Amino acid sequence: MRHILKIHRSLVDLLPTSKHEYKIRTFDPKQDKEHWLALNNKIFTNHPDQGNWALQDLENRMAEHWFDADGFFLATKGDQIIGFVWTKIHQDFVNQEPVGELYVVGVDPDHAHQGIGRAVSVTAINYLVTRGLKEAMLYVDADNENGLALYTSLGFN
After folding, report:
1. Helices then strands (H, E): number in the chain?
2. Which of 16, 35, 67, 156 is an S-S bond match for 151, by CB 3.0 to 4.6 Å?
3. Beta partners for 81?
4. What is the residue-wise DSSP string for 105-140?
5. Domain 4-153 has CATH 1.20.1050.10
6. C-alpha distances in angstroms, 18 versus 13, 14, 15, 103?
7. pTM (predicted TM-score)
8. Are 73 and 123 in contact (CB under 8 A)?
C-alpha cells in the first residue's frame, strides 16, 4: 500500500544558490514539451501518477488555471534536459493564504547525485519566496528515501 506524505516549509528568506556546470532556465512549451515528456517518463517509469504520460497529459496540466511556465524550471546541459521542478501555486483556499507547491521534481538517473535536484528545488523555493508566498508544501512517497533526504535538508518537515 502506498503511503504519501504532505510536508511543509515556511518561506521567509531566499536560499543560497551554488555554482554548477548546468544551466537552470524556465520551461518553454514551444521547444521543451517533447524533451520534458521523454525525461519525465524515463524518471517515473513505475510511478502510478507521474509515469507513462502522453503529450495530452502534459497539455491537460498546462491548460489548468494554475499552470505558469515561469514556475517550471529545467536544468539543462547543452540541449539536454537533465532535471526539473514544476511549481504550482494554490490560490483557491478559502480563509487561507496562497501556498506554493513543488508539484513534481525529477532528475535524469544518468545525472543523479550531482546536486541537480537540490539546485532546481532551491530555484523553485526562491521563486515562491519572490512571489510573496509564506509557505511551501509538497507530496512525497514515504518510501522515497532520496527525495525525503533532499526535502528535509531544504527545511521541509
Report:
1. 4, 6
2. 156
3. 76
4. EEE-GGGTTSSHHHHHHHHHHHHHHHTT-SEEEEEE
5. no
6. 16, 13, 10, 22
7. 0.95
8. yes
Grid coordinates given for 124? 523553485
Summarised one tens digit per residue, pLDDT across range 32-85 is 999 999 999 999 998 888 989 999 999 999 999 999 999 999 999 999 999 999
Question: What Å distances lie between residue 82 and 22, 116, 135, CA to CA?
Answer: 9, 8, 27
User: Mapping DSSP to helix (H, G, I), strand (E, B) and coil, where does residue 58 land?
Assistant: helix
Cell of 8: 511543509
Count of beta carbons in the 10 Å neighbourhood of residue 37: 17
Q: Are 50 and 39 in contact (CB under 8 A)?
A: no
User: What does the domain layout of the chain look like in residue ranges?
Assistant: 4-153
C-alpha cell recorded at residue 155: 527545511
Q: Are 93 and 99 in contact (CB under 8 A)?
A: yes
Cell numbers given for 132: 510573496
